[in-house]
Amino acid sequence: MRRIALMALAIGLFLPFLASAPANAQATRTWVSGVGDDANPCSRTAPCKTFAGAISKTAAAGEINCLDPGGFGAVTVTKSLTISCESGTAGVLVSGTNGIVFAGASTDYLYLKGLDIEGL
Question: Structural domain tally of the chain?
Fold first, then answer.
């Protein structure tokens, strides 16, 4: 009987730790690269490939930086953000649609630095 009670107590104590998921915090600064991958965390050592991939991992009022020149695709911004690509030529090349759409609140801002935008 004691063994069963001890086992139930141990399971009761450790089960919440097994069922909980780790927290996913957003970074205040993320990075994109022409050789990156959107599955990466968008850190400097593991950058994303597109602005759309990086924006979901960037906190409000954060910054997306470019590590190297490249075309980083279209993006819809819904929060305060800075996209800064002054280290090289960064492009947003789209066809038949808008390259960058800002759909934030009236108090939000969007700063664009060092981008070449081709599109509507």
Answer: 1
